[in-house]
Amino acid sequence: MIFMEKTIVRLVRIYSVLFSCLALAYAGRAQSISNVPIHGNTQMDAQYYQNDPAIGAPEVPEQMLFNGFTNFTYEQDNFSAGLRYEAYLDPILGYDARYEGNGIPYRYLTYRNNELEVTAGNFYDQFGMGMALRAYNEWGLGFDNSIDGLRIKYQPVRGVSFKGLVGKQRDFWTKGVGIVRGADAEWNLNEFFNPDTARKSQWIIGGSFVSKFQADEDPTYILPQNVATGGGRLSYARGGFTAYGEYVFKSGDPSTSNNFIFKDGQAMFVNLGYTQKGLGITASTKWLDNMSFRSDRYASVNSLLINYMPAITKNHTYLLAAFYPYATQLNGEFGAQAEVFYHLPKDLSFAGPYGTDFTFNYSRTQAIDKQPITSGVDTALGYTTNLFSIGQEIYYEDFNVTIDRKVNKKLRTILTYMYQNYNKDQIEGRVGFGHVYSNILILETQYKITPKKSLRTELQVLITEQDQGSWGVALIEYSIAPHWFVAAFDQYNYGNPIPAKQLHYYTGQVGYTRGANRVTIGYGRQRAGILCVGGVCRQVPSASGVTLSVTSSF
Question: pTM of the full predicted structure?
């Protein structure tokens, strides 16, 4: 009891310090708390909108919109505490309007020792690769499904760890109605049996169980109030070879996402890799069926997702390469990806004085085979399918080749060719658009003028006869290390079938970095499209005006 009383008093003091620090920071007197073991980071994004009917930009009555957050973390001895203040005044276009407002939606207290860690409040976590549970935050997508509750981590012996958690998920400024409960165990055989001996083979075994409870108040259906998912995983490594596999099963979960069918769901993911000097090979495959798992059966889009199904496609960073990104199809998909990296050594005359790097990547995702159930007692299941069954319809296909060559001490060139097949109807939930077939060519050059000054350029072209037609991009960026950069680029929709829409989307940016502080200001047009990270996406509308971004850590 004495220990608990002291613990409670200490936690109260920690929260008092945190709130005091927040008040002092906003009063402009943060230097007075420099001796307190507190750190954090902040980001503020503002956008001033101007009328631009030519690109279909919506009118913004506020003229300026703002998103921002500040994290504070306090750590001392075995205790830590944190909070995050967020403000959406009002949310920048493309973010869900339900974020409007400001407050502290994330706060926690944690105690840890050599074996035990206990967290009360909000937390993020992941079991395995996340197919059973993944709570995380992606600021650029406006995605946050943190859990507010209790979590315990326990490591009784080296190589064995357990997790247990219970709570409700964040739903913008409130919490979802469902209760999430989960347990995870992981066993590292090498650490357990021979912790001080290096072995050629490394084995890790894990398993997860996650359930949700939501009361059945539906006037039409008799719905399961408890839905569970469970699975196992295996990781193996030896020399340059790695292998990972995970399988999860989900009980019947009728919801808005699957049109209230009672069928169970399952998913499997396998990844293989091999590396040696100058060579890297990876191959992965994924099969999933009916795996939308949310703490509210009526939620949709990105709201209240408990699990995470990664997209087996390459994450592209170039503007036109990411023009048509892939979004994971939770109701069913089969995907495969392979990538080969090879370094051509400089010993070969045509490889250049520094050698040349080649990367080949191919990914494809398509439907799974579903056989509808149209009569009998099983019609509520909707359809039948078999593990690793593959349908005929292609959702996404991407083949790309990159040649990266350092020509001399100052010049580097990167040449990329891509072919993409994008099923616009399936991925974006549209009707009548069909597939977009595109060929993309990108040339990037990096030139080091002096040790601190550099110039980077990009020339990109996307050629297609579908959707908005062909695009071109020209970019130039000048950097003065370690503080300044200036960039300008133009996206030109020269192939739009409607001449009035053959528009330029020009943008200019200036950025300044000093220590942990970075300020970026830009002006120009933003084209409408989709922004995706790891298969999770949000719509981005057309816009024109000034953008300002400030990031800092302390």
Answer: 0.88
